[in-house]
């Protein structure tokens, strides 16, 4: 039955049940993932919803020319890169530190308890997470309630464009940092404990052990996560910005994804939005590829092997 | 992608005791660790506490506190009774439950079948199909082309536009597949000898032996459907009878657009009359409740489910 030289007819007969099982998923992906890929041609058209993709006028690179001449687009791109950078610097180290800290907790029950609490916000929707932030830090929130009763004045963090980057980063940390520790904890658990014992026997203290055993043990995972982050540098998070855009203003809160949405769908300027989206996808692919090259240069696997 | 982490050598397998060669902890170190971890827990739990307590408070208590209530006094279930008697919230709750239920079932049926179909070694074409799936993880048409495809298919204003476009997660299929591939082949061959077909094998052998991961994946899908609001904004923006709970939360609580119940107070229209704070917080809690009910049962399986995202291309 496992003879690989069976003719494909025989194999088709044998595997028809398996193939049938795959059909629904493939159909859904073809319709909702592959068809939109071909739909990207709208970026080179003046798409008219009334006549559809097949009969809309071709305009070549006009949409891109308009895009690159649009100050709002450059602002969105600038915001995206800036927010991405702030998130990388302020978010990235936290899960690693948290995982190290948690790993050093000896009691298994306590560790499991803490884990189940810090995972929780990951399952909240962005609407919920931002509502919670609003209630804690917003104009009528707990913080300002406290400041008012003690006559220190008020401080509305939720609508302040100049600190928006810090705000969204702390939201991301609150919601996702706990969940991101999972991979680091697994990598920590996979480190051979004999190494620690041998190092201790050689007189290495706890910090030397961390430096020479724990961190090298985490290197692969850290590199992988870094590559993923860099590859996603242009996707700083969509819903989070969409929800807060009105409160903060588009100057600070527009990123490439919201740009594509607001200037594409809400104004029916589909081709323009599609062009912005295509720009983002292409740069993202280049970033993923580049980040991987970088990982390989450091002798790590990255996302895929060489 | 090579996230090569073996089946978790869970922390649970370690002993609850300090290794003999390890230094005893310093007092300062212990205190710092305790404070940090305590702070982390507080950052998650305190806001939830405040919201729950406020949702259970009388208007008088809220007035006395000057807003959100931190120390409870005189708790009441009145806000919940009031909220659940509100037609908008009730409809939204039913819509949310309906989308979550139907969506999860659709996603699970499609994903489990696909994962099993691709999990048998040397089956015809499984490599090609696998690549077809994985490509979609890196390339996507993006927001606008997807929107155009869905609307061209007549999805605007239709329930299915909230479910079908996001029904398949390739990542989840790969997780399921890697578990199904690990089902003992002796067991499967034995069943085959006894005349069981693939459907039978999937149903009576593979599914029962991988219950935990199947449940975790179902939870992930369910949470996705429960939390979704953007698809509503895209495809059902005007029909408030079809809004799920998250959208109500966004409109009435986050943006403070008037009372739930005044159905006409749609997006961005006038600030009618904001609902009492306790009622708003009750809506927040309502969106949390289903999650908090299933969470404790699922929590112990997370690590297994997530880490087997090890994708062997």
UniProtKB/TrEMBL annotation, chain A:
Keywords: Cell membrane, Membrane, Transmembrane, Transmembrane helix, Transport. It comes from Kutzneria chonburiensis. The chain crosses the membrane at residues 18-44, 81-105, 117-137, 177-196, 217-238, 270-289. The keyword Lipid metabolism does not apply. The keyword Transmembrane applies. It is a multi-pass membrane protein. The lineage of its organism: Bacteria, Bacillati, Actinomycetota, Actinomycetes, Pseudonocardiales. Residues 77-291 form the ABC transmembrane type-1 domain. It is found in: Cell membrane. InterPro entries: MetI-like, MetI-like_sf, UgpAE/MalFG_permease. Its main location: membrane. Belongs to the binding-protein-dependent transport system permease family. PANTHER family: BLL4140 PROTEIN (PTHR43227:SF11). This is ABC transporter permease. It holds the Pfam family BPD_transp_1.
TrEMBL record, chain B:
Residues 93-298 form the ABC transmembrane type-1 domain. It comes from Kutzneria chonburiensis. It comes from the Bacteria. It is a multi-pass membrane protein. PROSITE patterns: ABC_TM1. The chain crosses the membrane at residues 40-62, 92-116, 128-150, 162-180, 201-226, 277-298. This is Carbohydrate ABC transporter permease. Keywords: Cell membrane, Membrane, Transmembrane, Transmembrane helix, Transport. It is found in: Cell membrane. The keyword Ribosomal protein does not apply. The keyword Nucleus does not apply. Belongs to the binding-protein-dependent transport system permease family.
């Amino acid at each position: 039955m496992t003879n690989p030289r069976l003719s494909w007819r025989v194999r088709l007969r044998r595997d028809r049940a398996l193939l049938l099982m795959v059909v629904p998923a493939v159909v859904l992906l073809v319709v909702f993932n592959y068809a939109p890929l071909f739909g990207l041609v709208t970026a080179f058209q003046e798409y008219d919803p009334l006549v559809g993709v097949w009969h809309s006028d071709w305009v070549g690179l006009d949409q891109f020319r308009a895009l690159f001449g649009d100050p709002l687009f450059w602002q969105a791109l600038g915001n995206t890169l800036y927010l991405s950078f702030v998130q990388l610097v302020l978010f990235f180290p936290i899960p690693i530190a948290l995982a190290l800290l948690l790993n050093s907790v000896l009691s298994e029950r306590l560790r499991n308890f803490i884990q189940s609490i810090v995972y929780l916000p990951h399952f909240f929707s962005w609407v919920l997470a931002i509502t919670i932030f609003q209630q804690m830090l917003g104009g009528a929130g707990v913080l300002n309630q406290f400041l008012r009763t003690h006559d220190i004045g008020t401080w509305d963090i939720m609508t302040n464009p100049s600190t928006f980057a810090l705000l969204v980063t702390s939201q991301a940390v609150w919601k996702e940092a706990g969940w991101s520790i999972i991979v680091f904890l697994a990598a920590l658990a996979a480190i051979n404990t004999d190494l620690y014992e041998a190092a201790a026997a050689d007189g290495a203290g706890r910090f030397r052990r961390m430096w020479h055993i724990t961190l090298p043990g985490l290197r692969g995972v850290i590199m992988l996560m870094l590559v993923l982050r860099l590859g996603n540098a242009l996707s700083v998070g969509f819903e989070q910005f969409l929800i807060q855009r009105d409160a903060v203003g588009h100057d600070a809160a527009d990123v490439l994804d919201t740009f594509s949405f607001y200037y594409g769908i809400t104004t029916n300027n589909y081709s323009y939005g599609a062009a912005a989206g295509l720009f983002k996808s292409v740069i993202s692919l280049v970033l993923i590829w580049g980040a991987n090259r970088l990982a390989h240069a450091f002798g790590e696997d990255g996302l895929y092997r060489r | 992608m090579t996230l090569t982490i073996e089946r978790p050598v869970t922390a649970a397998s370690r002993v609850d005791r300090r290794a003999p060669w390890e230094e005893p902890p310093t007092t300062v170190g212990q205190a710092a660790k305790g404070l940090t971890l305590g702070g982390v827990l507080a950052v998650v739990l305190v806001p939830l506490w405040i919201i729950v307590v406020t949702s259970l408070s009388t208007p008088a208590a809220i007035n006395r506190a000057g807003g959100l209530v931190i120390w409870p006094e005189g708790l009441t279930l009145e806000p919940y009774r009031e909220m659940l008697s509100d037609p908008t919230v009730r409809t939204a709750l039913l819509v949310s439950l309906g989308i979550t239920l139907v969506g999860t079932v659709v996603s699970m049926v499609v994903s489990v079948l696909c994962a099993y179909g691709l999990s048998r070694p040397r089956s015809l074409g499984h490599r090609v199909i696998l690549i077809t799936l994985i490509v979609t993880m890196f390339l996507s048409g993006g927001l606008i082309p997807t929107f155009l495809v869905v609307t061209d298919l007549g999805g605007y204003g239709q329930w299915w536009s909230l479910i079908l476009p996001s029904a398949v997660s390739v990542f989840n299929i790969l997780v399921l597949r890697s578990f199904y591939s690990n089902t003992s082949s002796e067991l499967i061959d034995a069943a085959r000898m006894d005349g069981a077909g693939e459907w039978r094998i999937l149903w009576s052998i593979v599914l029962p032996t991988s219950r935990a991961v199947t449940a975790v994946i179902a939870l992930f899908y369910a949470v996705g459907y429960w939390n979704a609001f953007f698809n509503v904004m895209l495809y059902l923006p005007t029909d408030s009878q079809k809004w799920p709970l998250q959208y109500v939360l966004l409109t009435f609580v986050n943006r403070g657009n008037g009372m739930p119940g005044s159905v006409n107070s749609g997006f961005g229209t006038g600030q009618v009359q904001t609902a009492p704070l306790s009622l708003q917080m009750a809506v927040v809690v309502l969106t949390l409740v289903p999650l908090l009910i299933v969470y404790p049962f699922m929590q112990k399986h997370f690590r297994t489910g997530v880490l087997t995202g090890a994708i062997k291309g």
